[in-house]
Design goal:
The chain is of the alpha/beta class. The protein has two domains: 172 residues, 3-Layer(aba) Sandwich (Rossmann fold), CATH 3.40.50.720; 107 residues, 6-phosphogluconate dehydrogenase C-terminal like domain (6-phosphogluconate dehydrogenase C-terminal fold). It has twelve helices and nine strands. The strands form two sheets. It has a six-stranded parallel sheet. The protein has a three-stranded mixed sheet with strand order 7-8-9, covered by helices on one side. Helix 4 packs parallel to helix 5. The longest helix is centred in the middle third of the chain and has 27 residues. The chain is elongated. The two termini are 31 Å apart.
Amino acid sequence: MKLNKIVIFGVGLIGGSFSLALRKAGAVSEVVGFGRSMATLEQAKQLGILDRIGSDVALEVCDADIVLLATPVAQMTDIFIRIAPHLGAHTLVTDGGSTKGDVVAAARINLCDKIAQFIPAHPIAGAEKSGAAAALADLYQGKKVVLTPMPENLPESVARVREAWQLCGAVVSELTPQQHDEVFAAVSHLPHLLSFALVHDLAQRDNRDQLLSFAASGFRDFTRIAASSPEMWRDICMANRDALLDELGSYMQELENIHEALAEADAAKLEEIFSLAREVRSAWTQQ
């Protein structure tokens, strides 16, 4: 597949890496970018992510092969409104949002009769760093990208978006939007919430400097994701609030079980919990 032009809204880690990966594969002729910060767009152009900084949405999206929304999910409604009247008949729209139910709902409302041209996606290749300077040509190599096609999507449209992500080196799978949000509430959104919570707890203590001075690799590994974008994760938590509340409730029950075992000095129960956790994680890392 050869793409004549792609348009990217949000040229940071996700959008910038999408461009660099397609460039590396020799699969795109021109990349045009839009964003909230002209400084970021200029930097993206200097880094070879963009050929041009877009100024007229109507002019750029009318003949684009693919439009990628790589912004925080809360910004996507406005972008749908801006691009909807101008999408070419053969232009496909996809996204890199970490939640899908809210994005699909916004697309249905604002893309209207062009909803079939939107194929939702979520690349599982984030990092705690953000911005154009964080973009990598090999970010998606061997990483999963989840498509959540809708009934309106034509098979050939889904195949084109699938191929674009595969050209980036990704391994592509499919879920429904609901399945996606339930899965990632458990394995992505909850861990981020817990990491932020732990660091926030220590940050409010009078002796936080002393505590952090003794923190070693275990703390560093667990809290790495607390360095992620607060704006992005605020939007994700709000967008997937129901599923995340369910997962948080389950986790709080798990903490209560551990609290009870400690309070009762039940060493056998603690070892049982730790052993199962170790067994499952070891098997997962060997996959």
